[in-house]
Amino acid sequence: MITKSNLKNMLISTGFGHTSNDKYEKYYPFSDCSITVDFKNEKIIYPEDKGFKVNVATTINFSEPENFVVLECVNRLLDKGYRSENIELERTWSLGHEQKSGRADICVSDQNGKMLFIVECKTYGSEYNKEMKNILSDGGQLISYWQQERGCRWLVLYASNINSNNEIEYATDSIDCSDDENILNLAQKDATILLYKNAHTVSELYDAWKETYEQRFSGDIIFRDDSVAYDIGVKPLRKKDLKDFSENDKIVNRFEEILRHNNVSDKENAFNRLIALFICKLVDEIQKTDNDIVEFQYKVGTDTYESIQDRLQRLHKEGMEKFMREEIFYVSDDYAENLIKQYTKQKRVKMIEELRNTLRILKFYTNNDFAFKDVHNEELFYQNGKILVEMVQLFQDYRIIGSADVQMLGDLFEQLLNKGFKQNEGQFFTPTPITRFIWDSLPLGQIMTKADGIEYPKVIDYACGAGHFLTEGFEAVEVCAKAINSSTKPSNQWVEKKIFGIEKDYRLARVSKISLFMHGAGDGNIIFGDGLENYPDKEIIPKSFDILVANPPYSVKAFKPHLKLSNNELDILDKISNDGSEIETLFVERISQLLKPNGVAAVILPSSILNKENESFITARESLLKNFNIIAIATLGSKTFGATGTNTVILFLQKFNEPPKRSDMVIDSVEAILSKADIDGWEDESILRGYLKKTGVKRDTYNEFLSKSKDYDFWENDNYFSQHYNEFVNSSEYTKKSKQKTFQKLSDLDQKKWFNQKFYEYAFSVEQEKLFYYSLVYNQDTLIISAPDENKEQEKFLGYKWSNRKGQEGIQITKAGGCLYNASDRGDNNSIAGLIRNAFSAEDEFDVEELDTYYYRLRLQDMLDFSGTTFNKSIKTTPTRVLKDIPGLTNYRLSDKNYFDLSIGNRVLSDEVVENGSIPIYSANVFEEFGRIDKQNITDFSMPSILWGIDGDWMVNIIPANKPFYPTDHCGVLRIKTDDIIPKYMALALQVEGKFERFSRSNRASTQRISNLIIQVPSVVDQQRIVDEIEAIDKKIADEQAIIIEQSEKVKSKFVEMFGTNHVSSLKPYIEQIRGVSYEPKDLNYNLVDGYITLLRSNNIYNGDLILDEVQYVSEDKINQSQYLKKNDILMSFSSGSIKHVGKSALFKLTGKYTFGAFCTVIRAIGSLSPEYIATYMNLDECKSQIMELAKGININNLKNEHIDSIQIPIPSDFQQIVFCDYVHTCDKLKFEAQERLGELNTAREGLIDKYFR
C-alpha cells in the first residue's frame, strides 16, 4: 500500500523531483502542466490552471491512502498522453431515490468532451479484491456511475502499490460499456436478450452484463505498453500473453454455466464441439511465435460471428490434417471468385455474389463442427454464435502447449471429459485410479533398464478411448526414467516413436489426441481405425510392442457383419456367429499378435472371459495359455466401473520368449509321452509325472492305456478312464454304429476291434489336448488379487466410490490409491501394485502382510480342471480345494450321474404367477417362495431335493420328500440316487463348498460349475452324527432368536397395555432434534486413528438396536459439539434410498465418543418423558404409521423435523414411566443374555463346520 511513510519513494520512482520547502514536482510536457506534492501542508496540487478539474478538496490531501492511488493513477495517465483538461476528479452524481451522492475518483473524456472512461481507485490488495467482489455481486460503484454517465465507453477498476524494492506495481481491469454488434443482431430475433442500450437502471445494466456478457472483463486497456491515449480497446491477444490454467479459474464450472444459461442440454455434443475448439487452439499455438497474435480469440469490435467461425473452420482443417491425418473440407472466402475466374476467365460480379452467398449459407447456417445447438437458419446461427464466442473466450487466454503445470492441465481435461461424454454400448472409460494402478503394476524398471542406459518402451492401447492409459503411461515412463537415472531430464522426444493408440470412434480418437497434448505428450500417435487391424504405414504391425494396456469393448451385439479387416486374420472370428456379441475374445487373440516376445500386457476384461463356455471364449483362453505366462489376475468388484455393475478382471501377462516357440516345443513333448518314447532326462518326464499326480492316475495304469492293449470296455470301472468310456459309449457315433445292420452282422471280435480303435482315437485326442495345456502351465504360478465383495470394503480397497448425487456425479476419491497403489510413490512395494510388479520378476516371492486378505498365489495348473473329459480351459481364480487324506472318506464328483441328478428349472413369466397357486415357486432365494404357480416342471417328489441359488447370494436349502415345488431358471436342483449319502449332510457340504468357490450374484453357480465339485463323504453313521450335532445347535440358535423377538414384543405389548388409554400430546415439547454430520469422502477413514471418531449411520440401526458391523470414522473437524452422541439419545434414520429404512430408530446406550451422519437425526429427551419411553414408542407400528401419514405429499424417503414434532404420543405419569422403564430394563437384560448365548452358539456352529467340512 502507498502511505505517507513511503509516498516520497513512490514519487521518486515515478519521476518526481525534490524542489524547495519539502515539495516534489513533476512536469508533463505533452500537456504542458505539472503536479506538485507539498509535504509540509500535506497537499497534492493538480494542474487546475491547465483545465484539470478537482470537484472535492478531500481528494487532494493526505488523509486517505486512496488519494495516493488516485495521484499515482493520474501520473500514469499524464505519462500515457492524456491531457490535463480531459481529466476530472470526484465528479458527483445523485444516486438512487435517497439522493445519496456518488463520486467517481477519476473521469477521462475524449477530445470532444465525451466520457471515455471512469476509474474507481482502491488501495492495493484486500480493498481492490473486495471491490472486485462487489462488482461481480451487484455491479459495485462503477456500474452505478455508468448509469449516471450512459455515454461512458469503459469502466476501470484500479489499484497501485510500491513494493519493497521501491518499484511501482498496479492492478487493473475494465468493462466494455458497448453492446456487441453480434449480440445486437441476435437480439433482433430474440427479445429476451438483455442489452445495455435497453437498460434503464443500475440493476438492469448489471443484469445485462451478467446474463448477456458473462460478467466479462477486458483487462488492462489503458496502461498496457501497446495502448495509445484516446484510442483504447481490447488489445490483440498474443501468444506470449497466454497463461497457465489455475484451479481458481473454475473452468469446468464456467463451461457448465455457459451450457446452462444458453439452454444447451446435449452435453455430449457440447463436449465434441469443445474438442474441435481444442484442436483449433492447439494448431494455433503450434504455428505461432511468441509475438504473433493468436487466431484463437474473439476480437471484440472487429469480429463477426461469421469471421470467427471462418477462422476456426480453417484452424480445424489444419489441426485435423496435422494431428489425425484426416482431411477436412474448408471453403475459403474467395472460393467463389476464384472458381468463376478459373472456368470463365471473367469477373461475373452477380454470379460470384450469388454463389458466394449460397456457399455462405451452407457454410454457416447448417450444423458443423462448432454447432453447440442445431443450426439451420440465420436466427439459430446467431444463437449458436453467442455460445461459440463464450466458449472461445473461456479458453482463449490460456496456454496448452508448454504449460508449466501439465498435471493441472490433464486434471482439467479429465473433469471436462467426465462432465461431457456419455458411454456407448460396450464402451466404458477406465477410472483414472485403475489406469494408475495398472501402470504402477507393470515392471517398467525391468523393461527400460539396459546395459547401455535407458530404452523407452513401445506402448500401445488398441482401444484407447479417451486416452487415459496413454497419458498415464507417459507419466509412468517419465517417472521410471528418472528413477533409473536421476540425471534424466523430463522430455517427450521419445513419444513420437513409442506411444500408439487406436480408436474406432472418431470423436474419441480426437479426444485421445487432445488428451495427449493436455498431458504433455502431444507427439504421441492416435490412429483413427480398428484395433483389430494392422496398419503397416502407421507402424501398427505384429510383434512390435513392448507393452500393451487396454480396456477393450465387450458384449457388442451383432458386430461381426460390420467388421471389415483387410490386413489381418483372427482365428476366433470363425467361432462367432453374425449375431454374436463376444467381441472381447477377438481382442484377447490380438494381444499375442501385437506383443514382442517377452512383452507385457495388462488388459481389463469381463470376468466371463475366464469361464464362459462358448466356443469363442474357449478359443480365447487357448490363445492366452499358448502364448503367455499369466503373471497375475486381479478380480475386481462391481463398484470398480460404477454404473456398469460389471464384474471385471485385469489380466497381467508376459509373452513367452521365442524362438523357439513354446507351443511347438510342447507339441514335441506330448507326442513323446503319447508314443511312449524314452523321456528320461527330458522335461517330458516332469510333465508326465505332474500330470499323473494331477489327475490321480498311476503310472502303470497310464502306460497300459497308452499301449492300447486292453479292450475299450476294460476301462468301464476305472476311476479315471471310466469318464472316457462313458463319453464314448454315450456318443452319437457309438449309438449310430451299434444300430447299423451291417455292423451287427460283423463278428463280436470285429465289432470290438472297431470300438477299440474309435475309443482310443477319442481318448487319445482328449489326453493329447489336456497334456498339451498341462505342459504349458505346469510350472507357472499366478498371483490372484481378490477385491472384497461388500460395497464399503470395495471402496476401501479401491480408494474411491461412485456418486449419483446431483452436481457430484462420478468418481469421488476417498483415499488416493486405496490399497491399490501409493499415490505419492510409484515404486512403493507395499501395495497391490507392488505385489504384481514383483510377480513379473523371477526373484523370491514378495509379501505384504497388511494386504494378505486381498491376495494369494495359485499354481496355474490348479486353476484349470484336468480331471474330466470336458476340457473347456476355464480358469478358476478361487483357491483349489485340498481334499482330506482321511480313511473312511469317499470322494463324489457331482457330475457322476450314477449318484446324482443335477438340473435347473424354467423361466417363469409374470402372468404365470397366481396368488393362490398350488405349487410354491423357488428362484435364486431358495428359502423364500418367489410366488405360486399352477403347473409343474418336476413330477417325481418321492425323494428330498437340495436347492441352490444359481445367480444370487450363495444359499442352499433342502426340500423334504413329497413336497412339490417349482424351480425357476435361477434355481438349481440336486437329487441323490444313493443311500450312501444323507441329503441333509449333502446340503451342509454343498453350502460350504459354494462359499469356498465364492459363488455369488456375479460368480454364478451354474450346473457346469456345480458338477465339477468334489464332495468328500464319510460313512452314513458318521454323516448322521454330524447332521444331528449341527441340527441340535441350530435348534438352540432358533430358541435364542425366539427369546430376543419375544422380549421385544413383550415391551411393545406392555406399552400398549399401560398407555393405550392415556391422554396424547404432540412430541415437540418433550424433545429437541439434532441433524447429523455433513461430510465428504475425504473426511472419512476406514480405521479409528487420532482425530477421527466413530460415525453411526442408518445401516447401523436394525430392529430397534444398534449394530456396529459396518462403521466408518469421520474427522472431528466436521463435528459440532451438539453432534456428539450422548447416552440415551435416540438415533433415527431420516433419509434413505429405501422407504423401509426411513423412520427406524434405536436408543443409544454405548460409552465412548460417537457421532452420526447427515442422513440421521438425534432425538434428545428434554422434558418429562424418559428416553426409554420415547424410544419404545418410536418402534411401535402405531408410531411408524403416524410418521408415514404425516410425511404424505413429500418425498417419502426424506423426513422433516416437523413430522417428528407432530407425532402424537400418550403422556404417562412419572410413576408409570418408572414402572415401564424397569420392565424395559428387565426385558433388555434377557435380550442381552440371549444375544450373548447366540454369539457363542454361532461360534460353536462355525467350529463344527470347520471340523467336519473344511
Strand content is: 15-25%
Mean pLDDT: 87
Helix and strand content put the structural class at alpha+beta
Number of helices: 37
Q: How is the largest sheet built, in terms of strand order?
A: 15-14-13-16-17-19-18-20-23
The Rg value, from CA coordinates, equals 40 Å
The largest sheet, given as strand count, sense and whether it forms a barrel, is:
9 strands, mixed
Estimate the global geometry from the Cα principal axes.
globular
The N- to C-terminal Cα distance equals 79 Å
- Helix fraction by DSSP (H/I, runs of at least 4): 25-40%
Number of strands: 44
Please give a structural write-up.
Helices cover 38% and strands 17% of the residues. The longest helix is centred in the last third of the chain and has 40 residues, at 1020-1059. Helix 19 (584-594) packs parallel to helix 20 (615-627), helix 21 packs across helix 22 and helix 21 (662-674) packs antiparallel against helix 27.
What layout of secondary structure does this protein have?
Layout (H helix, E strand, L loop, with lengths): L6 H7 L3 E2 L4 E6 L4 E6 L4 E3 L7 E2 L10 H16 L6 E9 L4 E10 L5 E7 L4 H13 L1 H9 L5 E9 L5 E9 L4 H9 L12 H11 L38 H11 L5 H21 L17 H20 L10 H10 L4 H16 L13 H18 L10 H15 L11 H10 L2 H5 E2 L2 E2 L4 E3 L6 H17 L10 H4 E5 L2 H13 L6 E4 L16 E6 L33 H11 E12 L8 H13 E9 L11 E8 L6 H13 L8 H13 L3 H9 L14 H8 L2 H8 L1 H4 L3 H30 L3 E6 L4 H8 L1 E4 L6 E4 L18 H8 L15 E5 H4 L26 E4 L6 E5 L14 E4 L8 E3 L11 E5 L6 E4 L6 E2 L3 E6 L6 H14 L10 H5 L2 E4 L2 H40 L4 E3 L4 E5 L8 E2 L6 E5 L4 E2 L2 E2 L5 E4 L14 E4 L11 E3 L6 E3 L3 E6 L5 H8 L2 H10 L10 H5 L2 E3 ...
Parallel strand pairs: 5-6, 8-9, 13-14, 13-16, 14-15, 16-17, 18-20, 26-30, 36-42
Antiparallel strand pairs: 1-2, 2-3, 3-4, 6-7, 7-8, 9-10, 11-12, 17-19, 18-19, 20-23, 21-22, 24-32, 25-31, 26-27, 28-29, 28-31, 33-44, 34-43, 35-39, 36-39, 37-38, 40-41, 40-43
Helix pairs in contact: 3-4, 5-12, 7-12, 7-13, 8-9, 8-13, 8-18, 9-12, 10-11, 14-16, 14-29, 19-20, 21-22, 21-27, 33-37
